[in-house]
Specification:
This protein is of the alpha+beta class. It has eleven helices and four strands, in the order H-H-H-H-H-H-H-H-E-H-E-E-H-E-H. 44% of the residues lie in helices and 7% in strands. The chain starts with a helix and ends in an 11-residue tail after the last helix.
Length: 267
């Protein structure tokens, strides 16, 4: 019961209850039999698969955008997140259980061969877990794996922006509603403005809108860019996000200052 309440609360918090990616299909086939994770069609699965392929290519010692973390550390973090619910409460990097979570993650990274970490990650979340509940993977892992995929891609010296499936771009835009939670300490008003090829060509954004208010107050700053870049910025990857700002110089300076974000785990 507690697990179900947690998931419903997460859906409400993320503004996602009732929404599914355009490419998603149920975990059960038409005959009622379970579909293997790697055969499901969701954006969460696609980003997970692409991240695992990149980890295979780069190996355990490559850099990431997560300060102090190598690709081995990032893989261990994602495995612990899905397979060690006892360590889940400390994943934000704050609170009394943060130290315990760091120790669990460190042991996972040290004791599990890197290829095995990647293989565990590739297999998807355990079926008997919160992440294995029907629809949970799409709800809680689409942004998670998109951002961590980009954490690895953008830390490499030759990285280039990639063209996203329009449905994924729309999905990321819808999920920016969660920014109200992550950016609740922002010292100025904050609005996101979608600016990408689909909107420029007259297409309709996934939510039907191209502006989203994350915090209503004055003075305000508008952060402008494609959904992928807005997502990276909102999740704290500010130096790697290709966005621009519209607002008074003082308000923009307050927004880009790292002081209000504090230090948190790159979850």
């Amino acid at each position: 019961m507690a697990e179900t309440v947690w998931l419903v609360r997460y859906q409400e918090l993320m503004g996602l209850a009732g929404s599914r990616p355009a490419a998603a299909e149920d975990a059960s086939g038409t005959d009622g039999k379970a579909v293997a994770y790697h055969r499901r069609m969701t954006y969460a699965r696609d980003e997970r698969t692409a991240l695992c392929s990149l980890l295979d290519d780069l190996g355990p010692a490559a850099p990431t955008l997560c300060e102090g973390w190598s690709t081995r550390d990032l893989a261990a973090h994602l495995v612990v997140r899905e397979h060690r619910p006892d360590a889940g409460a400390g994943l934000t990097g704050r609170g009394p259980l943060a130290g315990y979570t760091r120790r669990v993650q460190g042991k996972q990274a040290q004791r599990t061969p890197f290829p095995r970490l990647v293989e565990i990650l590739r297999q998807g979340p355990p079926r008997l877990s919160l992440f294995g509940l029907p629809g949970a993977d799409e709800l809680v892992n689409t942004v998670e794996f998109f951002v961590h995929h980009e954490d690895v891609r953008r830390a490499q010296p030759d990285w280039q922006p990639r063209a996203l499936d329009p449905g994924l771009a729309d999905d990321l835009w819808r999920r920016l509603r969660s920014a109200r939670f992550f950016l609740r300490k922002v010292p100025v008003g904050l609005e996101f403005a979608r600016e990408d090829a689909r909107v420029a060509a007259g297409g309709q954004a996934g939510s039907g809108h191209v502006r989203l208010t994350a915090k209503a107050r004055t003075p305000a700053v508008t952060v402008i860019g494609p959904p992928a870049e807005l997502t990276m910025w909102a999740m704290g990857r500010t130096s790697a996000a290709q966005v621009r700002f519209d607002g008074s110089p003082a308000a923009v300076q307050a927004l880009v200052s790292p002081a209000w974000r504090g230090r948190r785990s790159p979850n």
